[in-house]
Amino acid sequence: xxxxxxxxxxxxxxxxxxxxxxxxxxxALVAMQPEFFCEGPREEDxxxxxxxxxxxxxxxxxxGGAVVGFALVGYAGWTPEFSCVLPHRYAxxxxxxxxxxxxxxxxxxxVAYPYHGGGAEKFIGAALEKYPRExxxxxxxxxxxxxxxxxxxxxVFNEQLANCRVDYFDFYLCHAVDAERFEKIRRIGxxxxxxxxxxxxxxxxxxxxxxxxxxxxxxxCAAYPWDFAQLQLNYLDWTVQRAREQYEILQEYGxxxxxxxxxxxxxxxxLCPEAEAVLKAKAPGRSIASWAIRFAASxxxxxxxxxxxxxxxxxxxxxxxxxxxxxxxxxxxATLLL
Length: 338
Description:
eight-stranded parallel barrel; single chain; 11 strands
């Protein structure tokens, strides 16, 4: 008569038998999918911890005096270490969005140190690292509010390079500069620090994003030899927030303009019925948002338009706008993180 299987609690004396079962399991996994699994080491302390836990049951299956199986039941807050799993990069929705953007011809990607709780740089670094470095342009920004010394700037800049998995930034900006932050740039020597990084080849183009009045912008442009500036520019703010004056100051100083908020945070993606009727009569197949993007991108001296896409539909619409419109721009459209 065959021996019956007995289920009983595990004891520390059973650890060698449990480790032997782990080795059998790992070997079977490797045989089935060697690209995903390895025969990794198992830690006795982790097994001992599970056996001793008050809120778990580490159960063994025993047949004929031999341990033939085990199960960990009801433990909250602890997961066994799966050291048999090889490091492997699985597709994520964010990766798919970046891949679609790249396939569509988008080559400029804009992030910043604080975006998405500090995770944006790490995300874009992981999403872009499979592409040749020369095939895309990457922009990020210095968080001036966080910095006081040269050592602070060095630490954060190196952290950003590591986050983005690159050796240099194509575009690097002092972030959200107004009168107060302009004064801080001067006080802590931020431009001089970044100019050294540019001389070292770690920054290709050095600029700033701006949020203040035209007079402050003029003072910033006159203070340092910037390579570009980033403005909030759209057909509503052209007059409401004096974007036209700001744009003309950049033209006066010969600075290329990168446009942010061309659709004003989505406000220009839908208009009153009367306004939409005028635009639809002119081009029935064109989205309302496309008019805002085309307005910004058609201005002389505009280098890139940061469209701030937040859905697959917006990405698809922007790709149509850019692919169907001849525009002599080597960077084409840009994407912000989703």
